[in-house]
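Good morning C.,

I know you're traveling, so I'll keep this short. The sequence:
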Amino acid sequence: LNRATQGLYTPGSSFKIVTAALALNQGFKGTLPCPADGYTTSAHYRKIRDHEYYEARRAGRVWKGHGNLDLSTALAESSNVFFAQLGVSYGSDAFLRNAERFYFDRQVALHKSPLGAWEMSTGRLPRIAASDKYGLAQASVGQGALLVTPAHMALIAAAVANGGVAMRPRLVASDPPAQLARFMPEDNARRLARMLRGVVADGTGRGIDVEGLMIAGKTGTAQNPLGAAHGWFVGFAPAERPRLAVAVLVEHGGFGSAIAAPIARDLLLKARELGLLP
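The tokens, ready to paste straight into the viewer:
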């Protein structure tokens, strides 16, 4: 199994890039309340909470919550409460249409030859019924039945960096570059790219903010029923004139900010050393 192109994993908060794109496409403005006690669609379901709630509880403290958050701050702080509400507010039809624009449930050809075709899988998103608001809330924060491949997450990061246009991935250097699809409008992609720079400058990715490198991206910690959480970081650099996109997944690695993000930083530092980044 090629884990990069075929392995399917829960994306956790790295998927909030896609939910944020939905909000921008829908013209979201203003703020949403993000109380410490969390959010749920029904008393029958466990509340979705932010990681600060659990950190405070483990330390014997009481967390007061984020209060009202706008989209940029919610992305930087990776608020589950915000993004769960956001996805539910737009409904399953809009959520699924947005996922389709980001090429979910596809096979993408990487190279074709007389010997056969090499392909990558994209994410898997089962149909969410309009009545399943809790399932939609879970998917909106990158949990539930949603699955992705690392290659697809790298493609999503690259599309945001490229003004919303995804280029067809290539394995062979002589294959000509070709546009795959437009994932989102250019103006919204530029806004989202600035928000992802804020994640690293001032948010959950601040631990990898290297002077001169200008990394933009999103951390993720994906709950996993088979063991410890998967750690994620997806992003690109430099933020203002992107050259490279990256997706890092550490299976059972724990917090993405602590394990996956530093690997992404080191990869990008090595790329700069090799002259692949300015």
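Safe travels,
E.
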